[in-house]
Design brief:
Layout: H1 8-14, H2 16-27, E1 52-57, H3 59-74, E2 79-84, H4 85-88, E3 99-105, H5 111-125, E4 134-139, H6 145-149, E5 153-155, H7 168-188, H8 193-228, E6 233-238, H9 243-257, E7 260-265, E8 283-286, H10 293-304, E9 310-315, H11 319-324, E10 327-331, H12 340-357
Parallel strand pairs: 1-2, 1-3, 3-4, 4-5, 6-7, 6-8, 8-9, 9-10
Helix pairs in contact: 2-7, 2-8, 3-7, 3-9, 8-12, 9-12
GO molecular function, one term: carbohydrate derivative binding
Subunit structure: Homodimer.
Domain SIS: 43-190, 224-365
Length: 375
């Protein structure tokens, strides 16, 4: 069943190009619509006069939601907030009839996410019009409890994921958010047809870019894993659309290798965390040309000045980056907006190889379960 891979997690990392292809095929066709090149099978009134979006999720799904927020705000111009479901259920935001609430859960069974949505459903049943928010779920298991709880679902197309650490289901969630944000952008005309087409064409190139990344990274991350197998702390930094990838890289590492890791927005390092840095604490920086590239590079330089070893997730052939970083995990040149689907791959592999090197049970890490059905 592992098809020659040592662990399910590694197999699932390698399945990601196929997941992106399946998502492109399913979501990115116009169907009957002349308004949008995307078809998510959602009723039009879910989109009418939307004013704000509230997303609830946990763990890796929460990270996907943060990227979703970036896309929904920057492409579709809809103010979006992302909440930990375990927090939102006890302190919900004010909503209106023009609010869309999205629950994101791979398993469709996460207790806190279900409870946050149940609470919203109950608020809706009160007669007050102001609580009549619309509900949408994003899940890899439409037959799950989530599927029964909310009226509309976007099914993510990862196939069954066995490794406890979420990898391909995260990529599938990102694809759902690209489709949703671009669909809204097309219908609300917040992005021109040309730009829309350019982004969609870029997405169509992603599967082969992930394949290329997998090919080069497998060996590089394995080599780095030799050197970092005994490291005690890691810092991951990114900015903008790659800040959530820094969080995800840190989460992957801690959950399967049991190494302490933290993700930060790179600009926040100087407000405290920089005090942690020295030669024993490596810093992984995600630096993609675009709106914040120079900023990330200069934040990385600050870390280097504290003797941290710098690992760069950055495009190949970039002279400047190559000089600053001690080690490179190169990714292809892609639009910043699409880069998270690529930049997450070396971080998944790095976590995987470090955990495997430490001889740990990668697919079944201690204290964790695939579905967290308790509060
Ligand atoms: C991390 C991981 C967890 C889950 C979280 C939410 O690799 O697997 O953080 O992402 O428990 O799970 P779902 O998406 O099933 O609600």
């Amino acid at each position: 069943e592992k098809q020659g891979f040592k662990h399910f997690m590694l197999k699932e990392i390698h399945e990601q190009p196929g997941v992106v292809r399946a998502s492109l095929e399913a979501y990115f066709n116009p169907g009957e619509s002349t308004e949008s090149p995307i078809n998510l099978g959602l009723p039009a009134d879910l989109y009418t006069d939307l004013e704000q979006i509230q997303i609830v999720a946990c763990g890796t799904s929460w990270h996907a939601a943060l990227i979703g927020k970036y896309l929904l705000e920057q492409l579709a111009g809809i103010s979006t907030q992302v909440h930990y479901a375990s927090e939102y259920r006890y302190a919900p935001s004010p909503v209106t009839a023009n609010t869309l609430i999205i629950g994101v859960t791979q398993s469709g069974e996460t207790a806190d996410t279900l409870a946050a949505l149940t609470m919203e459903k109950e608020r809706r049943q009160g007669k007050e019009a102001k609580y009549q928010a619309r509900l949408l779920g994003i899940t890899n298991r439409p037959e799950s409890s989530l599927g029964h709880l909310v009226p509309h679902i976007i099914s993510t197309l990862a196939g069954i994921e066995i490794g406890v650490a979420a990898t391909k289901t995260f990529t599938a969630q990102l694809m759902a958010f690209y489709a949703l944000a671009l669909d809204l952008a097309a219908r609300r005309q917040t992005v021109s047809k040309d730009i829309l087409e350019k982004i969609i064409n870029g997405l169509r190139q992603i599967p082969k870019e992930i394949e290329a990344t997998l090919e080069t990274q497998e060996r590089l991350t394995e080599q780095l894993a030799h050197e970092f197998a005994e490291t005690q702390d890691f810092i991951f930094v990114g900015r903008g659309i790659n800040f959530p990838i820094a969080l995800e890289g840190a989460l992957k590492l801690k959950e399967i290798s049991y190494i302490h890791a933290e993700g930060y927005p790179a600009g926040e390092m100087k407000h405290g965390p920089i005090a942690l840095l020295d030669a024993k604490v490596p810093v992984v920086a995600i630096a993609i040309p675009g709106s914040v590239y120079e900023k990330v590079i200069s934040n990385a330089q600050e870390a280097k000045a504290r003797d941290s070893r710098l690992i760069g997730v950055t495009p190949v052939n970039d002279g400047e980056a190559a000089e600053i970083f001690n080690d490179l995990l190169p990714v292809s040149h892609v639009e910043e907006l699409l880069s998270p689907i690529l930049t997450v791959v070396p971080l998944q592999l790095l976590a995987y190889h470090i955990a495997a090197r430490r001889g740990l049970d990668v697919d079944q890490p201690r204290n964790l379960a695939k579905s967290v059905t308790v509060e």
